[in-house]
Amino acid sequence: MLKSMTGFGRGESETGLGKITVETRSVNHRYSDISIKLPRRLAPFEVRIKEMVRSEVSRGRIDVSVKLDSQGEGKLQLSADLHLAEQYYRALDAVREKLQLRDEITLAMLAGAKDLITGKEDVEDVDPYWQEIEPALKRSFVAMDEMRRTEGRSIARDIRERVERIHQQIEAIQRMFPVSVEAHRDRLHDRLQSLLNGLEADPVRFQQEVAFLAERMDITEEIVRAKSHLAQFSTLIENGEAVGRKLDFLIQEIHREVNTAGSKANDAEISQRVVEVKSELEKVREQVQNIE
Asked: Is 4 helix (H, G, I), strand (E, B) or coil?
């Protein structure tokens, strides 16, 4: 089953650290691009979360946002640099004496000094909470995956209809080709007769020219390859999941074969059919850009 690269999922869990809310978004991207936003306390889990995403998604831009409604932050330990405080005091006292100031040096003055008082958070080990956080992540991924599958089914229906129309046009081109060759033969014969002014043309030479013309115009090889690529395309739609790149490659190949066939056939009606095929291929390509 096809999957779209566009989806959203949300999951929640109650943990010993507080309520965890996970939101996962995915959008189109040529490769796999994962972005994780975590509270500082949960930063140790970033690698694990990326590994989970990679196991679920092969292509797309994935943004995972984790929010923690904390029931308690890490304790902040404050400390004063007494040696630095003494240096500040002496410096201020030297300024006061030099300028003969009457102001006394107060604690408020020292409290504003840079780096005099520092704080260090007492970070607890959050690893034991992973088993409580993981279910929220999984619920978010499951919800996102379901949305991607739902859109994938819609895309697949549209692609199937367009592939069928492409197949019908290619079949029509294949049927029209012998008629086109015969028409070219008749025009060549009429032109030759007008040039010879009523004289009979050498039938052997004429047949040689017709055979050369038919060989130059022959589009059998291009049609066979185009139909083969189209069959592979249909198989991937029905059986594949992460097949976006393969489908995009096959579209390019079908486009190339059909375009070559149109150029070689040199027939107005066939050229019109080719234009219709290329138009449908472009619409299919737009849909494939959103397939994982």
From this structure: strand
How many angstroms separate the CA atoms of 207 and 184, rounded?
Answer: 13
CA distance 96 to 91: 9
122 strand-pairing partners: 75
Asked whether the beta carbons of 290 and 5 are under 8 A apart, the reply is yes
Tens of pLDDT, residues 90-148: 888 898 888 888 888 888 888 878 888 876 655 567 888 899 999 999 999 999 999 99
- CA distances to 89, 93, 105, 116, 206 from 109, rounded to whole Å, are 9, 12, 7, 11, 110
Helices in the chain by DSSP H: which ranges?
Answer: 46-56, 82-98, 107-111, 130-196, 203-217, 220-239, 244-265, 268-288
Residue appearing with tokens 């004063």: 80
Which residue segment(s) compose the domain that 60 sits in? 7-71+127-147
Whole-model pTM: value is 0.69
In a domain? residue 2: no
- Are 263 and 179 within one domain? yes
SS3 269: helix
